[in-house]
Amino acid sequence: MLLSFTFSLVALLIMIFLLFGASGCTDKVEITRKYTYMTPVYTTTAEVRNAFEFAEPEVINNPGKIYYLNHHLFVNEPGEGIHVVDNTDPAQPKNVGFIHIPGNYDMAGKGNVLYADSYIDLLAIDISDINNIKILNRVENVFPIQYDIYYVGETGLEPAIITNWQEEEYVEVFDSEIGAEIYPGYYSYRGGFVTDASFNNAGGGSVAPPPTAGSGGSMARFAVSGTHLYTIDSYQMRVFDITNIPDPQAGNVIDIGWNIETIFPYKENLFIGSQSGMFIYDNSNPNSPALLSTFEHVQSCDPVVVNDTMAYVTLRSGNECQGFTNQLDVIDIRDLANPQLRTSFAMENPHGLGIDGTTLFVCEGEFGLKIFDAANTMEIDQHQLAHYKSMHAYDVIPVDGVLMVIGEDGIYQYDYKNPENIQMLSALPVIRK
Questions:
Q1: pLDDT tens, 112-128?
Q2: Around Cβ 430, how many Cβ atoms within 10 Å?
Q3: Which among 244, 264, 241, 265 has a CA at the least distance from the CA of 252?
Q4: Which string of DSSP letters, residue by residue, matches 117-161?
């Protein structure tokens, strides 16, 4: 009897010990979490500046800005360079070369010189011989960059630019108490940022005619007017004196506001589009443009084009535009100091636009290209001349009866000399990588 009781007591004590011992050993669990994070890719400024090269034509796969100069169409491949298209015959455009320019997003030109950005530098490029394109001058360190300039390399003395970001994975293993909540989010790591793996985030003795400026689209951030080049970033305008066309001289830097997007020169004025409104600058003193007036509108993307008395502005929705409006605004600018909204028309998703006389061209993104007779500004929507739906239209340049259209799927050209009988001339395909 006593032996049985003693055995039972020992068994009970062993069970209690095992119970508490087990709970003490199993109240933590090993947790493994995977994060993806973006780390910067550095390129030294010397490498960037030595990378300029004119080479054989390349396939157009991600078109950005377009510019027309000297019967050539220049098509930007964002961040990489510029395609050169011989457009002497718009019915048979020829892709003749590619200018490798790292960090290039915008361009404008005059005479035989094309101006282009390369991260922090402005390039003046000689295009007089289209088979031997070369740099004439480089104005260094004139543009701000999104990221600071770092120092890398074995000596630690090499200035470098963040030219890309690459995705990497980080695995973290740690112990956590059972039932403890794990919070997803952002984590600082290796100078970049991390998120958890479930987080998902774009001759003959004759006098030569004076050199003329080319034509840009309504999405342009570079513009030539007279003897000056004007460039904009998100909040400032930079002035370059190009009296000596091959040798641009950096001048004033003018604060404009926030979310500045586009610039359009017209006569002695500059029309600047932002996500909150249109700014009109008097350019009669080209070294120092002065603000004349501001026309405010709802938060939206805002390219603008102008004719004698009216400014045409497209507003569109989308994440990058922070708005929900899709419309065309017609603004009376007969009094430049007091622009007035004349009327608005509903659109689908308007992007760039162009005006030539009374013919108005509106790009509707994935909804194609629309062409209107804008003679009666109050009834533009009732006078649609054409709607090309089977294309993606981002921006346009109308020049001498030829319309050049750029979009995600191609570069299209139309003859609109007779607006009642618009004819398609050609299409250069875009081939996505």
A1: 999 999 999 999 999 99
A2: 18
A3: 241
A4: EETTEEEEEE-SSTTS-EEEEEETT-S--SS--EEESSSS-EEEE
CB 393 within 8 A of CB 414: no
- In tens, the pLDDT along 313-367 reads 999 887 566 667 899 999 999 999 999 999 999 999 999 999 999 999 999 999 9
Strand pairing report for 260-266 and 249-255: unpaired
User: Which ranges in 244-337 belong to alpha helices (H)?
Assistant: none
Q: Give the span between the Cα atoms of 63 and 45, in whole angstroms.
A: 25
Q: Hey, how many other C-beta atoms are within 10 angstroms of the C-beta on 232?
A: 23
Q: How far is residue 266 from each of residues 115, 124, 238, 251, measured CA to CA in Å?
A: 19, 23, 17, 21
Residue whose tokens read 């490498």: 47
Give bridge partners of residue 179 from the DSSP assignment: none
Gap between the Cα atoms of 35 and 86, Å rounded:
48
348-378: buried (b, 16+ CB within 10 Å) or exposed (e) per residue? Answer: eebbbbbbbeebbbbbbbebbbbbbbbeebe
- pLDDT exceeds 70 at position 198: no
